[in-house]
Design goal:
It is a single chain. The chain is mainly alpha-helical. Helix content is about 85%, strand content about 0%. The longest helix is centred in the first third of the chain and has 53 residues. The mean pLDDT is about 85.
Length: about 120
Amino acid sequence: MALTGRIGIGLLGLILGVTLGYLIWWQQNARLGLQLAQTKAWLVDEIQRTDRQTKPSAPPPPAAPVPAQTPMQAQLRETQALLTRARAVLKEAQADWLAEVQRRKRAEERLHATENRLKQSSGS
């Protein structure tokens, strides 16, 4: 009898604890939901207010005119264009040279492999 009474009291305490915990959690959750809704409304109002304030009232001023180039500036730009074209030609020549080096290396390797096979077949 004493054991069933203790089990009953234990279950009653467990149910009471879970119920109280749920009620406290529900109150806090409801408060947080209300605060979240208020914050969202405030944020939407702020976004709309700042959008109204930042809309341009007049068109932006025209850009300043570009000054004419002096002969020295024109010559500098022409020289820079020549250098850019020369760099492109050099880069292409470098790529061709590297490809040729690799082709020669492979050809030499094949030649050596063929020589070794010939030596082996004649020595056998």
